[in-house]
Amino acid sequence: MTIEAKLPDGTTLLFPDETDPAVIQSKVKEILGQPVSEVSEVSQESVTQESTQPTQDQINELNKAQMDGFSAIEKMKYEFDTTESFLQNADIAAEAWMPIGRIDLFNTAGKGLYASPTELYGNDFMDLNLDQRRERIQKVRYQKQIQEYPELTRLAESGQSTGGAGFLGALGGALADPTTFLPVGQSYKAMAGIGGLVAGSFEAARGLAEEGEIDLQSTLGYTVGGAVLTPAAVKAFRTAAPLVSKKVSPAFNKLKAKVASKKNPNTAASAEETMDLINSKMMELKASGSVEDEGLLLAASKRLGLTGDQVENAVINSNTKLDIPWNIEVDKVVLDTKVALNSASAVKNDLANKLITTTIRKVKQYSPAVAQRLQKFEMDSSVKSQEMMQRIRPFQIMFSKLSKDVQTEFTKRLKNKDWAGATKLAEDAGISSITTKGIIPTGKTSKGSFVVNDGQQKYTMTVEETMKQTKDVLNDMHMYGNEAFENGLDFLEGYFPRGKILINELLHAFGDVRTPMYKAALKREAKKLNKQSIDELTEAQKAAVFTDLFEAPIGRSAVGGFSSGKQRVLETLDDDLLQFYPDNASDALTNYINNTINHVEKYKFFKGNKTKVGDGKKFDASKSVGSMLRELQSEGKVIGDIEELTKIVNLRFNEGEKTPARFFQQLRSVASSLLLGNPASAFIQFADQLTNIYRYGGDGGKAILQTVLGRNVQNTKDFGLANHIATDLSDIKGFAKSFQDTLFKYSGFRAVDRFGKNSLIQGAWNKGTRLVKSEKGLKKFKEQWGETFGDEFDSLVNDLKAGKVTENTKLLLWNELSGSQPISLSDMPQSYLSSPNGRIFYQLKSFTLKQIQLLQDSVYDEAKKGNFKTAGKNALAYTVIVGGGQSVVQEARNAIRGRGFETERIPDHLGNYALSMMGTSLYGLNQLEDLEIKKFALSSLTPAILTVADFAADQTRILDELILQGYDWSDLDKKNFKSFPGVGDMYYNFFGGGIEDFLEREEKRKD
Question: pLDDT (tens digit, 9 = 90+) per residue, 499-516?
Answer without folding.
Answer: 888 888 877 777 665 677
